[in-house]
Structures are given as structure tokens and as C-alpha cells.
């Protein structure tokens, strides 16, 4: 049995880690290397780093920071933020990351997903989808850290990304992100029902129960944690931590 | 000193980092002379089967590797695709594998609703005792990413197995030749222990 992966998602901003609420309200978390040394000790399943200002600042990945990160990590690593060329992806893989997440640029140039998958295999490509409820409570995809609306529907877009070769989908609910309110279960389920590739549910985790629910009710293959792994509790200070492994094992089976 | 063979398939940085962490001397080499004089060889690999076999043939590595593994019998460890290359061949490609282990590489069946690739942490349980798998503790878990799996002809060549829909051989050994389907370099203390075991052979 494959264990359900529980993945801390860490947000990079100007070489520091931050945490957001609904993609805004930045809180400083700490220095990436110190933080991930703790995750190393905690033996977390996997880490995903998202540079949330790269695309907006029209720049590529900060390879220096990524290389410092990779030197310290003995678990699978993913990176997203500003990746628009195969060369950039190659530098990231060469450093020791095994996955690259593509979000805004996939909307701009969907063929890039296919090119990446062809060169590096589907398993190396995470298609990242940010979703926000718009008018009439309709779920629509947004890009550029939630700033740019699109007319794409999450289910149709996820299917297209799968057919183009994405190996998994990181599905983030902007409305839930950083809220500790639980996952957007219906959204996650609609996507897991539509695709065969693993879906990483992101946005809203506040308890072990939330984690179990999105796996059992919504069929998520993996769960991404933000606030839960960097704050002590909702509204409290920074404390890098990870849910108890035995407890997770028990609820996830 | 462990020589990590660089034939252009996959990143080798993390393997090197992990050896550094556990205090084992290792180097990444692609030139034939260095590999000729290696006393322990790690054959990594991420990507497609045929592409890897083509590169090994085109670079002139094949004869040297064969000599090291079969005549000199230095310890060789194939990781991920590197393990699949040790078999006779793979459903992924048309080319023959190295054939050092009597085994075939096949694709995970599409039915059964299982996600392919088999990607994530899974348990690898020892089957036959091997110096590669000592001191791993209870329920050793490793990080896997693969769409094809290996089954050996002779159960004696299996040293670990893992279940993902089917039960397959996640680590193999035939004499001095070892293979691991998972990525030890991405598997925390379990991977460190396994690579340490290989270094101490």
C-alpha cells in the first residue's frame, strides 16, 4: 500500500519563507534552510517550495536558494515559480529537485507541460491549479498568485493538463488557503473524479481530521499542509512542526 | 570510494549529497578510465529504458561495466532505472537490458484503479537476507517513482519486495550485483542506512 503523502508546502518570498491567508496577509516564517532542517529531522514525506513572487516579478527560479535547499534535504523535493523554459527545469532537476510545478505558464502555453513531460517524464511535472470562487459562486482558475482571473473551469483544465502529460495535480483553493477551515471537499472530489493522476489537495487544512476527510471523502492522493506545519495553532506564533506520524498513519490507514 | 556513473540520465546531486552526509567518499564520473579503475559502482538512472541503454552503448560504457561487474566482480548497485537496466529487458523499450540478473521489467497493469506511476512512500520488506538490507529496522519505507517494475525468475535473487497492486521485487541481489527500485537518496534514514550498507560491502 502506498502511503498517502502529507506534504508541507513552503512559500518563498525574497529568499525567506512566508505564509499567506487566501494568497495575501504575509507572515514571515523563517529562513528556508533552518526550517527544512527541522523537516528533515521530522522525516516528512516530501517538500514542495513555491516561489510566490517569481512570475509576478518576471524572473526565473532563484537557483542559489534552491541549491542550498537541495543540499540539506533527503526527501523528494518539488519547486514551482517562474519556470518557463526547459533549461530552467533542467537546472532545477540538476540541483536535486525531482519535480517542477507549473501554474501560470501552463495557462499561457499549455504545450510546455507536454514538452516537460516528454523530456523529464510525467512524474517530474506537477500541474498547479489555483481556484477561486467567482460570480455566482462559480469555481474558476486563477494565475499569477491568484491575481489574474481566467475563464478556465478547474475540472476541464485538470483533464487537459493530464492529457498533456502532467504527472500530478496540485489543487489549491484560494478561498481556503491559510484559513484552517478544512479543505474545499467538493472541489477536490470533482477533480479527483475526473482525472487518473494523483491530486494533491491544498488549502484549508487545520486538523488531522481535515486531512483524513479530504483523502477519504474527496479521494485526494496526497495532502499539502501550509499553516498547520509552520504555526503553533491558528492565530498563534511560528512553530515548525508536523502532525504525529503514528496518528496520521492511523487516520489514513 | 564509490564511483557514480554519469551517463546523462537523471540528477546525481542528491546521491552525492547523501553520501557526503553519511561520510562516504563518492565521486561522479563519466570518463571510461575512471570507471575502469572504480572499486565500487553505483548505476543511477531516471528516464526511459531505451534512451539509457543507447547512451550506455554509445559511450562505450557497456563493455567496461560488463567487465567490472561480471569479471572483476566489484559491487554494483543499480538504482531505479539503473536496477531495471540489470534485467533482460523492459516492456518500456525494445532494446535488451544488461541481463546481469535473470529478471524482466514490466509495466504496472492499467486496470485495478491503481495510480501509475507508483509514486510515493511505500514499505519494502526484506525477503532473502542481504548485506544491503541490514539494520533497516522495522517496516523500512522508501520513496518510489516508477511505472515499470521488476520480477526475478529465481526467488533467491530477490532481497526486498513491495506491493502496489502487484507484489514486485523492490531490491535484488545476485552475488556482487545489487539493485534497488526506490530512491535511497530521497528516503531519509532508511536510504542512508542502505547506502551505508553498500559502502561497507
Shape of chain A: globular
How much is the radius of gyration of chain B in Å?
15 Å
How far apart the termini of chain B lie comes to 12 Å
Which topology of chain B does CATH recognise? Answer: Rossmann fold
CATH class of chain A: Alpha Beta
State the total count of DSSP E strands of chain B.
12
Stretches of chain A where pLDDT falls below 50 for ≥5 residues?
none
Any idea what the CATH architecture of chain A is? Alpha-Beta Barrel
Q: Kindly report the name of the CATH homologous superfamily of chain A.
A: Aldolase class I
Task: Note down, in words, how this protein is organized.
The complex is a heterodimer of chains A (253) and B (201). Chain A has 253 residues and is an alpha/beta fold. Chain A has a single domain, classed as TIM Barrel (Alpha-Beta Barrel). Helix content of chain A is 34%, strand content 26%. Chain A contains ten helices and twelve strands. Chain A has an eight-stranded parallel barrel, surrounded by five helices. In chain A, helix 3 (86-95) links the parallel strand 5 and strand 6 (99-102). In chain A, helix 1 (32-41) runs parallel beside helix 2 (63-72). Chain A is globular. Chain A starts with a strand and ends with a helix. Chain B is 26% helix and 29% strand. Chain B is of the alpha/beta class. Chain B has one domain: Rossmann fold, CATH 3.40.50. In chain B, the strands form three sheets. Chain B has an eight-stranded mixed beta sheet with strand order 2-1-3-4-12-11-10-7. A two-stranded antiparallel ribbon of chain B has the order 5-9. Chain B has a two-stranded antiparallel sheet with strand order 6-8.
Amino acid at each position: 500500500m502506498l502511503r498517502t503523502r502529507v506534504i508541507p508546502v513552503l512559500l518563498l518570498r525574497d529568499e525567506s519563507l512566508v505564509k499567506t491567508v487566501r494568497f495575501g496577509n504575509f507572515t514571515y516564517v523563517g529562513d528556508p534552510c533552518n526550517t527544512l532542517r527541522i523537516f528533515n529531522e521530522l522525516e516528512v514525506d516530501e517538500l514542495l517550495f513555491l516561489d510566490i513572487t517569481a512570475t509576478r516579478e518576471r524572473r526565473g527560479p532563484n537557483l542559489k536558494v534552491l541549491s542550498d535547499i537541495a543540499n540539506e534535504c533527503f526527501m523528494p523535493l518539488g519547486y514551482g515559480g517562474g519556470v518557463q523554459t526547459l533549461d530552467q527545469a533542467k537546472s532545477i532537476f540538476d540541483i536535486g529537485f525531482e519535480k517542477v510545478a507549473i501554474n501560470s505558464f501552463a495557462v499561457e502555453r499549455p504545450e510546455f507541460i507536454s514538452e516537460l513531460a516528454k523530456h523529464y517524464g510525467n512524474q517530474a511535472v506537477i500541474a498547479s491549479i489555483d481556484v477561486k470562487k467567482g460570480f455566482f459562486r462559480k469555481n474558476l482558475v486563477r494565475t499569477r498568485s491568484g491575481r489574474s482571473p481566467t475563464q478556465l473551469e478547474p475540472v476541464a483544465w485538470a483533464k487537459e493538463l493530464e492529457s498533456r502529460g502532467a504527472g500530478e495535480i496540485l489543487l489549491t483553493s484560494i478561498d481556503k488557503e491559510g484559513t484552517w477551515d478544512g479543505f474545499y471537499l467538493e472541489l477536490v472530489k470533482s477533480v479527483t473524479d475526473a482525472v487518473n493522476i494523483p491530486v494533491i489537495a491544498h488549502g484549508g487544512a487545520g486538523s488531522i481530521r481535515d486531512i483524513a476527510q479530504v483523502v477519504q471523502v474527496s479521494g485526494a492522493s496526497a495532502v499539502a499542509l501550509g499553516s498547520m506545519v509552520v504555526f503553533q495553532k491558528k492565530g498563534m506564533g511560528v512553530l515548525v512542526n508536523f502532525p504525529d506520524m503514528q496518528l496520521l498513519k492511523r487516520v489514513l490507514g | 570510494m564509490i564511483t557514480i556513473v554519469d551517463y546523462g540520465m537523471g540528477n546525481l546531486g542528491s546521491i552525492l549529497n547523501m553520501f557526503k552526509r553519511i561520510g562516504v567518499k563518492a565521486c561522479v564520473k563519466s570518463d571510461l578510465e575512471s570507471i575502469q579503475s572504480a572499486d565500487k559502482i553505483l548505476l543511477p538512472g531516471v528516464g526511459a529504458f531505451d534512451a539509457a541503454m543507447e547512451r550506455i552503448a554509445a559511450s562505450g560504457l557497456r563493455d567496461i561495466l560488463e567487465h567490472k561487474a561480471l569479471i572483476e566482480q566489484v559491487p554494483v548497485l543499480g538504482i531505479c532505472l539503473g536496477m531495471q537496466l540489470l534485467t533482460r529487458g523492459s516492456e518500456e523499450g525494445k532494446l535488451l537490458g544488461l541481463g546481469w540478473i535473470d529478471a524482466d521489467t514490466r509495466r504496472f497493469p492499467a486496470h485495478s484503479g491503481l495510480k501509475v506511476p507508483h509514486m510515493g512512500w511505500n514499505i519494502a520488506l526484506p525477503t532473502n537476507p542481504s548485506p544491503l538490507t541490514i539494520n533497516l529496522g522495522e517496516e523500512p519505507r522508501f520513496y518510489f517513482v516508477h511505472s515499470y517494475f521488476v520480477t526475478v525468475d529465481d526467488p533467491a535473487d530477490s532481497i526486498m519486495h513491495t506491493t502496489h497492486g502487484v507484489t514486485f521485487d523492490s531490491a535484488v541481489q545476485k552475488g556482487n550485483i545489487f539493485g534497488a527500485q526506490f530512491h535511497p537518496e530521497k528516503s531519509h534514514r532508511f536510504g542512508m542506512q542502505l547506502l551505508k550498507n553498500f559502502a561497507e560491502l
